[in-house]
Amino acid sequence: MGYMQNSSKEQYIRYTELLQKAADINYASAVLGWDQEVYMPSKGADARGRQLSTLAGQAHEILTSDKLEKLLKALSGKDDLTDAEKSNVRLSLEDFEKNKKLSPAFVEELSKQTSECFNAWIEARRKNDFNVFAPSLAKMISLKRKQADLYGYEVHPYDALLDEYEKDATVAMLDPIFQGIKEQLPPILARIKSSKQVDNSFFHQLFPKQEQWDFSIDVLKRMGFDFEAGRQDYSEHPFTTSFAATDVRLTTRVDEDNYTSMLWSCIHEGGHGLYEQGLPEDQYGLPLGSAASLGIHESQSRFWENCIGRSLDFWKFFYPQLQQRFPAQLGKVPVEAFYKAANKVEPSLIRTEADEVTYHFHVMIRYEIEKALIEGKLDTKDLPAKWNELYNKYLGVMPEDDKTGVLQDVHWSHGSFGYFPTYTLGSFYAAQFFSQAKKEISGFDKQVVNGEFNELLHWLRERVHKHGRRYTSEELCERITGQKLNTSFFIRYIQEKYAGIYE
Ligand code: CO
Questions:
Q1: I need a surface site. Which of 196, 199, 204, 470 has the fewest CB within 10 A?
Q2: Are residues 144 and 17 part of one domain?
C-alpha cells in the first residue's frame, strides 16, 4: 500500500507544488519589479531592493532544496509519466543543477546589486553622466564574472552567461553570425545610401500623448492582446513582464515630438505579451508554462513589430484610422509615404529606434563590448570611449553625450550580460517563421490588409506559444520550418523589402 501511495503521480504532484510555490514568489517579485519601474517613488528604492533580495533568496532556497532534488531524481527515472510531465521533470532537473551552483548568499548579493545598479543607472541618466553609474557597474561586472565561473564553461566565460538567456548559444555560434552581418549588411546599406532618400520629417511634429496612447491600445486589441489578462503602462524603458499567462504587463514611453518613438515599440511589446498570454495556463510555474528562450521571445516581438507592423499591408488597414486621429499631421501624407518613412534606413545612435538594417550593428557593438568586459580586456572606466569608437567604426555616428551613448540601455544595470545577442537571433528567427507563415496561411496578405490577425495568432499559438520550454530554440525552429536557423531568410527578407522602398 505504501508503494502505491508513493506512486509517480503523487511525487509529480509534490514536485509541481514546490515549483509553483517558487513561481508564486518569483511572480510576486515580478510585481515589485514592475512597480519599481512604473510607479515607485525614488525614496522607495532601498526598501524595494531588500524586499526583492529576500524574495529571490526564498525562491532560490526552494529551487535548490534537498526535497526538490529527491523528488526530481526519483521522478527522472519513471516511465509512467506523460510526455509533458517527463519534459517538465527533465528541464527542472537541468535548472536545479544550474541553480545549485550559486549559493543563496551569492543570489542575494546579485539581487541587491541589481537594485543598486538600476538606481545608479536612473540617476546617471538624469545627470547625463556615466561616472555616476560606473562604480556600481564595475561591481556588477565582477559579480557576473564570478557567476560565469560558478556556472562553469568550456571555452569562453561569456558562454556561461549567454546560456542563461539562450540555451546552447555560445561565442562559437554567435561569432560567425555577427561576422555574416559585418559582411552582408554593409553592401546593402551602401546601396540604400546611394538611392533616393526617404522623407520622414512628418514624424517630427506634435503628436499629442493621449491620441498616441489610444491608437496603440486599438492596435494591441486588433493584434489579439487580451486586456482582461493584461494592461499597458508607462515606464522609462519599454518592457513586458508577466505575473501569469492571465496577467501580462506591457510598458511604453511617449515622445510627443517624434511619432516613431512609441507605436512600434508598443507593437513589439505586444508581440512579447501575446507569447506570454499564449503559454499554457495549466503549466503555471513549470518549465512548459514558460517561454522557450529569449531569442524565441524576441522572434515573437519582432515578427509583429517588423514583419507585420512595418509592412505596407498592415498600414493599408490602420492608416485611415491613424489619419483620423492626426488629420493635421498626416491628412496629406499618402499611405505609401508613411510606410516608407516607417522603414527609413539611417545609421543612428539609439538602438531601440534603429531601422531593421542598422539595428544589428547596435547589437554587435554591445556583443563585442560585453565579451571584452567579461574577458577582462576592457575596463569599466574605458567603456564610453570604446562605445563611441565602435559607433564611429560601424555606423559612422558619434554620441554627443552619455545619455544617447553608453547609458541608453537598461540591461547592464540589471546584470543582463549575454542578453543583447538574443535580439539579433530573434530577428533572424522572425524572418524564418514569417516566410513559413506566409506559406502555410492561405490568403495571408489579404488578411493583414483587412486587419484580421486571428489566424496568424492561432498559427503562432500552435507553432510556438503553447509548447513553452518543451523544445529548445533550435528544435522549435526545425519543427516549424523544417530547418535550423538559417540567416539567409533574414537577408532575403531585407533585400526584398528595401528593394521596394529604395527602388
Ligand atoms: Co523585445
A1: 196
A2: yes
| CATH number for 446 | 1.10.1370.30
Q: Strand pairing of 247-252 and 230-234? A: parallel
Quote the DSSP letter at residue 9.
H
Measured in Å, residue 46 CA sits from the centre of ligand 1 at: 28
268 C-alpha vs ligand 1 centroid, how far in Å? 6
Residues 447, 405 share a domain:
yes
Instruction: Please state the domain count of the chain.
Output: 2
- Write out the residue range of the structural domain in which residue 9 sits: 2-152
Residue 353 belongs to some domain of the structure: yes
Ramachandran bin of 499, using left for φ above 0, alpha for ψ from -120 to 50, beta for the remaining angles: alpha
Mean pLDDT of the region 94-108: 91
**Residue 157, in any domain of the structure:** no
Supply 232's cell numbers. 499597458
- H or E element that contains 399: none
264 and 137, same domain (yes or no): no
**What predicted TM-score, i.e. pTM, was given to this entire model?**
0.92
Task: Give me the pLDDT at residue 6, please.
Answer: 65
Per-residue pLDDT tens digits for 398-410: 999 999 999 999 9
- Report helix, strand and coil shares of the chain as percent, to nearest 5: 70, 5, 30
